[in-house]
């Protein structure tokens, strides 16, 4: 492959749009209404039954088992989507700056009418038209638009949106280049995720051995008297969570959704946030505490950590238990609580819940405090190189994603010229957001599940 990436086109002109800047001289800048039209085809008479979902920039077919408890009374309220349609989630710009809001459909099916459905006009190749909106989305162009309390987009926000429209032959070349680069980046990220997964398994095996058997492999063992705990070191005490922690659940924040949205400086993605508004002054923590998930599908799926150490000033919502060690080492006890099998204490199938009473009565094996400190120190040394490599790989993934974001935006707006780049045979290039994409990591899948649930409810 010859990657002759030219930094710019020969001649530029001012687009007249400050955030778009200069564009190649021969490109057109057209209003959105000249490039897209809004398609509204209701599923009257239940013509289609394949339910689609917009999940992290991909339009995917929703499995039937995922529709339980989420289906509306009739899918006639949904809209029909065809291959080549661009689906947009226009809601909640005020509170959600992370979701990818645009997806190119490769399927025929139905999707919630809360979403918008666009089709490109003749001046835009459909894949380029999607890339253009996707690039604007990555650059957060739409977050200054929208109306209503939650900043929802509608057709008026796209009607006059400045859209770059190069000649169709260039659009095709741009799409082919970006598909190829996207494939390379995905493969690299996939390989780094696999490495992180293997290193995490090795790290967790070291920690698990230490918090369940101690540091001495020859230590005498005893029957804990608890079936699922099995044997523990002879000098360890079999205790209960309530004996090792104070529970501070009474100080959780009783805020509405709108009030929570006012606290914009996120500190804990899973459990809470930092920020100060009058109502939460009495509920703010400024301590080192352990947070344990109280409800949600993650209790069963274990896609995210259930035990998180929280430090500094923060508040906690009513979806997490708040535990303060009475005399034990916080890092050690956090590892113990993360490794617990909570399934026997979880109630509810549709809405799994770990109640305070059940949590506090779980049996755990605890060594003397001095040994806890020693275990934490030695395991930290043993896993330091693994942690460093994991963090380095995560940083590389972050840089790759950042590079991809800037490259897409620069190419589709004409800042980089890719017309003369030689690429491999087109049959070997996977299309972006198509069928053949890498599996999502656990955290992304969990977040996607939340987004799917929101989609149906809207």
Topology at a glance:
Elements: E1 12-14, E2 22-24, E3 28-30, H1 32-35, E4 36-38, E5 52-55, E6 58-61, E7 79-81, E8 86-88, E9 102-104, E10 109-111, E11 116-120, H2 126-138, H3 155-159, E12 163-165, H4 168-213, E13 221-223, E14 231-233, E15 237-240, H5 241-244, E16 245-247, H6 257-261, E17 265-268, E18 272-274, E19 285-293, H7 298-301, E20 307-316, E21 320-325, H8 330-339, H9 356-360, E22 363-366, H10 369-412, H11 442-457
Antiparallel strand pairs: 1-2, 3-12, 4-11, 5-6, 7-10, 8-9, 8-11, 13-14, 15-22, 16-21, 17-18, 18-20, 19-20, 19-21
Helix pairs in contact: 2-10, 4-8, 4-10
Question: Can you walk through the features of this model?
Answer:
This protein is an alpha+beta fold and 458 residues long. It has two domains: 12-190 and 395-457, DNA methylase specificity domains (Adenine-n6-DNA-methyltransferase TaqI, Chain A, domain 2, Alpha-Beta Complex), CATH 3.90.220.20; 215-366, DNA methylase specificity domains (Adenine-n6-DNA-methyltransferase TaqI, Chain A, domain 2), CATH 3.90.220.20. The chain has helices spanning 32-35, 126-138, 155-159, 168-213, 241-244, 257-261, 298-301, 330-339, 356-360, 369-412, 442-457, and strands at 12-14, 22-24, 28-30, 36-38, 52-55, 58-61, 79-81, 86-88, 102-104, 109-111, 116-120, 163-165, 221-223, 231-233, 237-240, 245-247, 265-268, 272-274, 285-293, 307-316, 320-325, 363-366. A six-stranded antiparallel beta sheet has the order 16-21-19-20-18-17. Strand 17 and strand 18 (272-274) form a beta hairpin. Helix 2 (126-138) packs across helix 10 (369-412), helix 4 crosses helix 8 (330-339) and helix 4 runs antiparallel to helix 10 (369-412).
């Amino acid at each position: 492959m010859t990657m002759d990436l030219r930094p710019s086109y020969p001649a530029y002109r001012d687009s007249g749009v400050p955030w778009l800047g200069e564009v190649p001289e021969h490109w057109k800048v057209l209003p959105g209404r000249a490039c897209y039209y809004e398609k509204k085809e209701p599923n009257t008479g239940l013509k289609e039954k394949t339910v689609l979902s917009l999940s992290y920039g991909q339009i995917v077919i929703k499995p039937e088992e995922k529709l339980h408890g989420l289906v509306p009374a009739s899918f006639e309220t949904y809209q029909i989507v065809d291959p080549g349609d661009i689906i947009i989630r226009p809601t909640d710009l005020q509170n959600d700056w992370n979701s990818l809001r645009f997806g190119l459909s490769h399927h025929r099916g139905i999707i919630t009418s809360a979403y918008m459905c666009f089709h490109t006009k003749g001046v835009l190749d459909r894949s380029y038209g999607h890339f253009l909106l996707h690039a604007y989305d990555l650059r957060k162009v739409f977050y200054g638009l929208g109306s209503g309390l939650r900043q929802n987009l509608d057709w008026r926000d796209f009607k006059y949106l400045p859209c770059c429209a190069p000649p169709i032959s260039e659009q095709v070349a741009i799409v082919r280049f970006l598909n190829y680069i996207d494939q390379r980046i995905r493969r690299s990220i996939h390989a780094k995720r696999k490495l992180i997964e293997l290193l995490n398994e090795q790290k967790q095996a070291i920690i698990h051995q230490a918090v369940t058997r101690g540091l001495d492999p020859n230590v005498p063992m005893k029957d804990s008297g608890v079936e699922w705990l099995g044997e523990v070191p002879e000098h360890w005490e079999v205790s209960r969570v309530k004996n090792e922690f104070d529970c501070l659940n009474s100080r959780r924040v009783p805020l509405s959704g709108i009030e929570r949205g006012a606290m914009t400086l996120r500190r804990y993605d899973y459990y809470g946030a930092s920020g100060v508004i009058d109502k939460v002054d009495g509920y703010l923590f400024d301590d080192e505490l352990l947070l344990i998930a109280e409800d949600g599908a993650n209790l069963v799926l274990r896609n995210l950590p259930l035990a998180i150490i929280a430090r500094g000033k923060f508040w906690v919502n009513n979806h997490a238990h708040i535990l303060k060690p009475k005399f034990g080492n916080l890092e050690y006890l956090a590892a113990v609580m993360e490794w617990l099998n909570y399934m026997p204490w979880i109630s509810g199938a549709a809405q799994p819940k770990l109640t305070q009473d059940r949590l506090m009565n779980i049996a755990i094996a605890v060594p003397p405090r001095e040994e806890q400190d020693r275990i934490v120190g030695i395991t930290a040394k043993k896993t330091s190189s693994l942690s460093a490599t994991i963090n380095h790989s995560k940083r590389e993934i972050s840089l790759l994603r950042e590079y991809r974001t800037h490259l897409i935006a620069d190419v589709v707006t004409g800042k980089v010229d890719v017309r003369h780049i030689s690429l491999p045979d087109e049959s070997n290039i996977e299309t972006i957001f198509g069928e053949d994409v890498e599996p999502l990591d656990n955290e992304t899948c969990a977040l996607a599940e939340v987004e799917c649930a929101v989609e149906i409810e809207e």
